[in-house]
Amino acid sequence: MAKPIQSIERAAAVLRLLGGAGRPLALAELAAALDLPRPTAHGIVRTLCDEDLAGQDPSTGRYHLGDGLTRLGSAWDRHDLRSRAMNWADALAATTGCAVFLGVPEDRGVGLVHHVFRPDGTPQRLRTNAVQPLHATAWGLCLLAFAPVAARPPQEMERYTRRTVTTAAALADVLAETRRRGWAADAGGYEPDVGRVAVPVRSGGGLTVAALGIGAPLEELFGPGGRVRPDPLAALTSAAGEIAASLEAER
Amino acid sequence: MSGAVAQGERVVAAIDQGTTSTRCLLFTHSGRMVAVAQREHRQHYPRPGLVEHDALEIWRNVRRVVPAALRRAGLEPSNVVALGIANQRETTVVWNRHTGIPLARAITWQDTRTDAIVERLVSDGQTGLYAGISGLGPATYFAGPRLQWLLDHVPGAREGALSGDVVFGTIETWLIWQLTGGPDGGRHVTDVTNASRTMLMDLRTLQWSDELLTALRVPRRMLPEIRSNSEVYGHCTGVLDGVPVAGALGDQQAALVGQTCFAPGEAKCTYGTGGFLLKNTGSRIAGSEDGLIPTVGYLFGDDPVYALEGSIAMTGSLVQWFRDALGMISTAAQIETLAMTVPDNGGCYVVPAFSGLYAPRWHPDARGVIVGLTSYIHRGHLARAVLEATAWQTREVLDAMNRDSGLPVTRLKVDGGMTANHLLMQFVADVLDVPVERPLGSEAVSLGAAYAAGLAVGYWPDPEVLRRNWHRAAAWEPDMDPRLRRSEHENWGRAVDRSFGWARPGS
Questions:
Q1: pLDDT, tens digit, for every residue of B423-471?
Q2: A79/B472 CB distance under 8 A
């Protein structure tokens, strides 16, 4: 086995300290906790800051975990994702008769990476690159539930329809239910007559990198009593599995 | 890849015999692909400019991918109602009809060994003869000069051809002959679209031209019979035993059919390593001005539908160059990410005249240029300029097509790998000023072969029914200020001007 690299071990220890402290730490505290000379500790934490894995509060000079950590799980280039997913997304649209969307976490929303029209000949507009609200769409809820580091719940939850989830408590319930059953749904939470269902697309290590979703007129996806129809859900789950496998295979 | 398919479902099989691989795809009545299997074959490069394939290896791959696709779909040969073939065009095979053994490796469409033959045809003033009858001016692309080269250079080829022992075929001919029995009664036929790329067929009569056969010294005896694109050529023996072989088209014409461009003025562009734009011209043979090629679109029944073809040498291959030679990106898809880091090209243009400029400009002495460099330009601008080059080249071919009389193109159907790039497709729509549409399922080539075969056996009643299988998966509407379009077009034109005359004779 290769010899462990000391500087990486120390860097990992710094990250654990910063993550476990619950408050920003001063350089002296880091050096003391790791039993390192201050210049060594400084070199490590500065490098982590350069990599965006740590950050420094400009007023106090204390260190905390960096924003780069939240992006570690979504390292897939969005256009690579689209090109890997494209054939499966087409097949999903063909089998379900629904529009297909692929969404990734983005600042304050879910960024649509790919969109396949509902194959019914109706006029539709390509939504690629649009950013939609996390709390109101199935793909947003899916990311909130399965990629909680990359997708953070919004502070303000705007109401789009009477079915939009707008309180933190209601959102927590929806996310718990989503995690339990493994898929997310909005029965008209963003647009009144459009239903959506989404499942996570996971890459290596089980990290959720995207949400794969289908959208259709409400009554086509949701049966009586608001239950999701089983056939499209099965097709969706299977397509997400195929996309995940293609991410694994070709990485 | 495989999709759910009902037990006992009847499907059409398509063989897509391409430059690098052979694939078998199965399609349902709604045009949905339910399985695909693929095998690559070896590229032989004996010398610079020479590219050969082993026709027996390709035939062996066909016998492997067909059962593999059936297995993936959980189907039996008895589920297959017909088999269609789409193939790399202009690749030339000669073989012994008693043994089924090729006399030499197949000479592929990229192979330029016939440049001396072609130059002689041009300098002898024979361009008009070939263009007038076959629609094709002499060029190294086409199969006829390749066949002449084989007859003149392969020992025993000409004698065998004259005695009836050695026969010629493009790839679909070779595969149909093998599939239907080979030495034991294999059918020796070609289809009008492949025959139209030989420089040997009369584009009006759709028969071999004695005049051109004489001019290229090709014995008529060795040629396959020219048939329509959709009819039962024979039945398979061995692999898919008893299944009718009922459709064959060159790959680009197959995509025209797969995209259901059945009305005059309808056009498709397939974006792969190169780009191929074909416009349906109906019963009319278009003029060949501007280097566009009049060709047979397809023949279903008695009346041929013609097409006008324009090709773009470098589209996807320019992105590959940007990735592999410049190392700017690590995957082709990431060019879109890089291009989206900037709002525009920053005044930078890339003209990919790597081996001269083809239709509609025809400057063999042009070489690639990057113009408009300033210290402001970074990788993102170059990425945009690379993508924009594909769009402007499409515009030049489309403009040339619209100068041809007949219906102008009012929307463009696209397929091929580059349609995954939404930024590019939007830019194509912007500079063409027509909507660009992508169908559900990117397998237009194979689907076209399946359609031809399915029509022949009545699986589908008529082409119009197939239109219902075409579903719009995405559409890009033009959204560019006309003044900006004009000024960018002008800039592109000025950049192209700067590529002219760079290569010196003999270099």
A1: 999 999 999 999 999 999 878 999 999 999 999 999 999 999 999 999 9
A2: no
CA distance to A97, B194, B315, per residue, from B92 (Å): 43, 11, 25
What local confidence, expressed as pLDDT, does residue A229 receive?
Answer: 86
Of A79, A115, A124, the CB nearest to B334: A79
Mean pLDDT of chain B: 92
Show the DSSP H helices in chain A as ranges. Answer: 6-21, 27-34, 38-50, 78-96, 138-146, 168-181, 218-221, 230-250
Domain borders along chain A are: 6-65, 73-250
ipTM above 0.90, yes or no: no
How far does chain A reach from its first CA to its final CA, in angstroms? 24
Name the residue among B296, B56, B292, B66 with its Cα closest to residue B177: B56
The whole-number pLDDT of residue B1 equals: 44
Q: Does B325 touch chain A (CB under 8 A)?
A: no
Interface probe for B, chosen from A79, A81, A250 (most Cβ of B below 10 Å), is A79
Q: Which of A112, A122, A125, A126 to mutate to test the interface with B (most CBs of B within 10 A)?
A: A126
Mutation target to probe the A interface, by most A beta carbons within 10 A, among B260, B323, B331 is B331
CATH of A73-250, picked from 3.40.50.1820, 3.40.50.300, 3.30.450.40, 3.40.50.740, is: 3.30.450.40
**Is A124 in CB contact (< 8 Å) with chain B?**
yes
CATH class of the structural domain A6-65: mainly alpha
Inter-chain residue contact A117 with B471, CB threshold 8 Å: yes
Contact at CB, A86 and B442, closer than 8 angstroms = yes
Question: By the CB < 8 Å criterion, does A90 face chain B?
Answer: yes
Task: List Cβ neighbours of A81 (8 Å cut-off, separation of 6 or more).
Answer: A102, A104, A113, A114, A209, A210, A247
Per-residue pLDDT tens over the stretch B133-169? 999 888 888 999 999 999 999 999 999 999 999 999 9
pLDDT class of B32 with cuts at 50, 70, 90: confident
Residue with tokens 């379900």: A96
Tell whether the model's pLDDT for residue A224 goes beyond 60: yes
